Amino acid sequence: MAAAPIYLDHQATTPCDPAVVEAMAPLWGEDFANPSSRGHRPGLRAALLVDQARESLAAALAIPPHTLVFTSGATEANNLAIKGLCEARLAKGRHVITVATEHRAVLDPCRYLERLGFSLTVLPVAADGLLDPAQLEAAMGPSTVLVSVMAANNEIGVLQPLEAIAAICRRHGAAFHCDAAQLVGHQLIKPLELGIDLFSFSGHKFYGPKGIGALVVAEDLELAAQIHGGGQEGGRRSGSLSTPLIVGLATALDLALADALSRAQRLGQLRDQLWSGLEQLGGICLNGALKPRLAHNLNVSVAGVDGSRLHSGLRRGLAVSGGSACSSASGEPSHVLIALGRSRQEAAASVRFGLGRSTTEEQIKETLAFINQLLAKLR
């Protein structure tokens, strides 16, 4: 094994593309002005760069530029979408629907609203991690104002049926929010054409900088602001815009979409090679449907080992995770795997492999050899 761990945690975060770093570099010094300061030339230059980045992102997502609201990332975008929509529609109803396998950045805002008096329905998923649209249809009611279902699961990588969900929301007059942090930059998606009303994503999931993301808001959809102040982003999200991060976000998405198809094909082959090798070790089962699934994701449970000892051993040679990076500090087993029917012990002894641009076939072979040796000791 190499001295440095093999990095297979690209769903937690990706390295910033060197071309993205290069695009941002002069904006920390030379072009540092506030894009809201349009009364002088440096401010106008910064505003132009932000406008150009907004147009580039809009073109990539097939949306009007003014529907894009910059945020600090998908977590903030999810909060703005969920709480902002529900506050704006108080007169219509107070029922929210989401799914048990959502990221905490969706579940926690929904539970916050529940504490304020909203009715919350958390739908289960099948053993493969997929939502049954018929269950969503049955849960809809006249007071349902929002449905929040993620595009691609951050732990098990399964892809939810977005078009079917959007159609159900349309029939019942409810807004559809989609956390697409794990999908954007890995597959081409046109959210508004799919019928998605609110669409969140984050730059650091597709080789862009941390601390920047956005929320797409469908035309004429009213949101209550969650951050008040200077009235930036059409009054929906106040705060000085970060020109370097916004330019980095747009650059990263352009680069990510340029190689998304070839990258998915290559990583899908490596993922399947990894899964085939793990199966041969015995006592390892797949978490979630193999299809439809992100090409760069694999999540497995390992039988016959203690979860804490497994991850302690894995850390000596691999950078992998047992679930979401945002909730791993709690020490609790993955709520996603529990929702799939895994026991707490099985969930604790699970591993998420997130492949990326830097992943090679040789690394997959080294990973399999390392895990084989580790399991021989643990078992």
Describe the structure.
- The protein is α/β, with parallel strands linked by helices and about 375 residues long.
- It has two domains: about 5-15 and about 260-379, Aspartate Aminotransferase, domain 1; about 20-260, Type I PLP-dependent aspartate aminotransferase-like (Major domain) (Aspartate Aminotransferase, domain 2), CATH 3.40.640.10.
- Helices cover about 40% and strands about 15% of the residues.
- It is globular, with a radius of gyration of 21 Å.
- The mean pLDDT is about 95.
- The longest helix has 22 residues, at about 260-280.
Describe, in short, the structure shown.
With 379 residues, this protein is of the alpha/beta class. It contains 13 helices and twelve strands. It has a seven-stranded mixed sheet with strand order 2-8-7-6-5-3-4, with helices on both faces. A three-stranded antiparallel sheet has the order 9-10-12.
Main attributes of the structure:
Aspartate Aminotransferase, domain 1; seven-stranded mixed sheet; alpha/beta; 40% helix; three-stranded antiparallel sheet; globular; 379 residues; 14% strand; Aspartate Aminotransferase, domain 2; single chain
pLDDT averaged residue by residue: 96
Question: Any idea how many domains?
Answer: 2
Strand content: 5-15%
- In DSSP terms (H or I, runs of 4 or more residues), the helix count works out at 13
What's the CATH topology name of the largest domain?
Aspartate Aminotransferase, domain 2
Shape: globular
Largest sheet: 7 strands, mixed
Span between termini:
21 Å
| Number of E-type strands | 12
